[in-house]
Fold:
Amino acid sequence: MSSIKIQKICCIGAGYVGGPTMSVIADKCPDLEVRVVDINNERIAAWNNSDLNKLPIFEPGLDRIISRTRGRNLFFSTEMEKSISDADMIFISVNTPTKTKGLGAGQASDLSWVEASARQVAEYAKGHTIVIEKSTLPVRTAQAIKEILKTTNRGNKKDEISKTFSVLSNPEFLAEGTAIHDLEKPDRVLIGGEDPEAVDALVKIYLNWVPSKQIICTNLWSSELSKLAANAFLAQRISSINSISAFCEATGADVQEVAKAIGTDKRIGNQFLSAGPGFGGSCFKKDILNLVYLSGYFGLPEVANYWNQVVVLNTWQQDRIYKIVLEKLFGTVNGKNIAILGFSFKANTNDTRESPAIRICSDLLEEGAILSIYDPKVSFKRIAEDFEKLSFNNQGIWKMANSIPDALKNVDAVLILTAWDEFFGLDWNYLASLMRSPTWVFDTRSVVDRKEIENTDINLWKLGEGN
Ligand code: UDX
Ligand code: ADP
Structure:
């Protein structure tokens, strides 16, 4: 076992990964002091808000953990220098979006934030520090981090010469909406690294709550690639079932029945087979595009094309939905009122990154639709920012609704894009009375049961259900 004693941990980046991950580590390891730092003052202030409903991210169960750890052994601050210099172990958990310009634009990850973090670590760290990449990163990023730590250290003042670093990869597999459960009961913890003492020090932390047989140790590159591969496999499954959903609509089959029939084969398994409006979230698209870029870089164009098709199909699914809405509403939505139920990329999160709703709503707005958007957790500000990022020719008008009935008042159609619990089992008899006739409900998440609308004049279109 490791002789390195870890007492203080620092995490750079207080986002959807850093925040929940460090909260659970602090909860499970009360003897450790955990400091989460971020350059974003507003975000840190929100993490420190005494009103737990105002934390910067919504994650079921997170408030409960924060209430017992914050101020005890979990601290959120912008104090970069002290938090880094005090720490024995530093997690880098910053954003790694797809590059928007330069070499690899649209595919490769932008590592500016990782590089800036590594430079901060190189500058402020003292003694021996274990540096852990937590953000999903392209294969061989650990090498880049190592080089930054080495070169920035070179030629420093005399008292800093003794700085040393071990770099590990410890990708996070949590899914948003179930982050706390995934962190408390992970399927596995993956640790990649070459320094056995550093690996052992990290294993020891996880052993506080994760059985040893679930902790997998590999070399650095396998660990980095496993994260990209896991996300690519998961996303591929969604594109596969979505391709079948279109097939079902064309032939009269029902994608729910097909998913059940194929999912009972143990080799296929029954999870991740829900057809929908396409995958969103910060990881899937970014990681596949990364894989595509790296495959091209390593001279593997067939591999690149294979994975790229998963993203192509995902975009096609989103386009397909918007076109179906248009077609059913007599080829035009100009001036028509449409309610959007759900804007987050999945239920139980306020995250909208890569949400299918952004593209589908933008397309409808561009056609002149008037949207009333209801989402239980996503704010007006977030949606406005999402629309702003797309430079589309916005001729439509949108507003936020406070409730489902508020969203549905006088609309010609309802489009359900996220499977929030509260969208199931609605009183469609009442809701239909609020809407204009003829009324359409477009259900992309299999939320509405046909029986619920049988006594109404609602026309129901369900994704993946053939006639
Ligand atoms: C994903 C991975 O699951 C997680 O391991 C990794 O760490 C980060 O990326 P996340 O994006 O948070 O997690 O959520 P996930 O539950 O995987 O859903 C991703 C997208 O796929 C969502 O838009 C979701 O609606 C969609 N999805 C998921 C489907 O359309 N059908 C499914 O059956 C499952
Ligand atoms: P993820 O989903 O991977 O957690 P987020 O975008 O939610 O990504 O969070 C990343 C966080 O990292 C943001 O709050 C951002 O402000 C922070 N960050 C980025 N660069 C730095 C940096 N150099 N130092 C500290 N925090 C940083």
About this structure: The chain has a mean pLDDT of 94. Residues 196 and 275 are 43 Å apart (CA to CA).
